[in-house]
Design goal:
Layout lengths: L12 H15 L3 H14 L4 H13 L3 H14 L4 H13 L3 H14 L4 H14 L2 H14 L4 H10 L6 H7 L2 H4 L1 E4 L9 H13 L5 E2 L6 E6 L9 H21 L15 E16 L9 E8 L2 H5 L10 E3 L18 E3 L5 E6 L4 E3 L8 E10 L9
Antiparallel strand pairs: 1-8, 2-3, 3-4, 4-10, 5-8, 5-10, 6-7, 6-9
Helix pairs in contact: 1-2, 2-3, 3-4, 4-5, 5-6, 5-7, 6-7, 7-8, 8-9, 9-10
Length: 389
């Protein structure tokens, strides 16, 4: 959601009531209710740019394409010079397969604001879809020049490079040996065993009030996912948060100095960690994705199915965590090129840390057991400076 500039969305109490309620509903994934709240706000102020854009994004999430397009067209009429509107229009057109019209929208966005990394990224996506891989590379690299912390650009560049014969460059971005780290919890204060700790943690997760089956706008398929979990006061969750914070600090201390090609800007003095739990059942999985809002991400395993614990490596690998490009873009590993994917067998008590631009997914599994994990993002806190070298 876009923040509402003061000149756009303030000064009318009734409008603000509907507008703020809509934002709250979106945070709760109550998208249908959010649509109604945004429409109520626009009934009071029909020329509010940000409300049109945010309503369009919710409708886009609900795959109500024509209504979303109408919102973006209304926004374009209100503020023709606003590049983000063209980006939103182009994104829908791409999703519907109209690449020619999408390219035109993204090029308008780049013309309107040539210093916006997001516009260059979306143009690069469309160029890649049209078959212009060289143009796509230029777009992703330009986005990284404008914003060196751009996760989305780096994620897509890592899958594009092998396609254009630049496997060595891809190896640097996907250096699993350097950038992917694991650690086991050996002891948690207050619990006699890790098994006892994980049992308490599993109970807190299953009882979490925000646990939702197959949530929209999430990578979870065939399972359930919570909203923010680290804000709870359950002892087990807070103990896990402390362990995660220490593991992240160790990761940054040891990996960042060796990975200046990734951590191209100084590490933040202030950072926050956001976590959510995922409960997968038979046939469930996490679809290929990356974490665009963070700079380091990770996962902790609470419960692991027996089939995951006992299967042979290199076969079906049910329940495994896999790193690498989405299957349709996966390069063939030949010669001196690195393996396109990397597998991790989940273990109860294991934490995995990696750069947020790493594509990752899980393999479906069968059986009556649940696969429970807590995923998390490490995010730079806005308004704080960076630490020195």
């Amino acid at each position: 959601m876009l923040e509402a500039p003061e000149w756009v969305s303030s000064g009318n109490e009734a409008f603000e009531g509907h507008y703020n309620r809509a934002a709250d509903l979106v945070s709760q994934r109550r998208f249908e209710d959010a649509v109604e709240a945004y429409r109520n706000s626009l009934a009071l102020r029909p020329l509010d740019l940000v409300a049109h854009l945010n309503l369009g994004l919710v409708l886009q999430t609900l795959e109500r394409w024509e209504e979303a397009i109408a919102c973006y067209e209304a926004a374009a009429a209100i503020a023709p010079e606003f590049a983000e509107t063209q980006v939103r229009l182009g994104t829908i057109l791409s999703q519907r397969g109209d690449i020619t019209a999408a390219l035109a929208a993204f090029r308008r966005a780049v013309t309107l604001d040539p210093f916006a990394a997001r516009s260059h990224i979306q143009l690069a996506h469309a160029l890649r879809s049209s078959g212009d891989l060289g143009g796509a590379e230029i777009g992703y690299r330009r986005a990284l020049e404008l914003d060196p912390e751009q996760v989305e650009a780096r994620a897509h560049l890592s899958t594009l490079l092998p396609q254009i014969g630049k496997s060595k460059d891809a190896e640097i971005l996907l250096d699993y040996g350097l950038l992917l780290k694991t650690e086991r919890i050996e002891h948690i204060e207050g619990w006699s065993t890790i098994e006892a700790f994980n049992n308490d943690l599993a109970r807190s997760i299953v009882a979490h009030p925000t646990l939702t089956r197959n949530p929209r706008a999430a990578a979870t398929e065939g399972g359930s996912q919570t909203l923010e979990i680290f804000n709870g006061d359950e002892t087990s969750i807070q103990a896990l948060k402390s362990f995660v914070e220490q593991s992240v600090a160790n990761y940054l201390l040891t990996v960042a100095p060796e990975a200046r090609h990734i951590f191209v800007t100084p590490l933040p003095e202030a950072r926050s960690i956001h976590g959510w739990a995922v409960v997968l059942r038979a046939g469930g999985c996490q679809l290929p994705h990356f974490h665009p809002a963070a700079f380091v991400s990770g996962v902790y395993y609470v419960r692991v199915p027996e089939t995951t614990k006992t299967c042979d490596l290199g076969e079906n690998e049910p329940g495994f965590l896999k790193f690498g490009p989405p299957a349709e873009n996966a390069p063939i590993a030949t010669g001196d090129m690195m393996t396109a994917t990397h597998s991790i067998r989940p273990q109860e008590g294991l934490i995995v840390l990696f750069p947020s631009y790493f594509w990752h997914y899980t393999v479906p599994f069968e059986g009556d057991e649940e696969r429970i994990s807590v995923a998390f993002d490490v995010v730079r806190c806005p308004g704080h400076g960076n630490s020195g070298e």
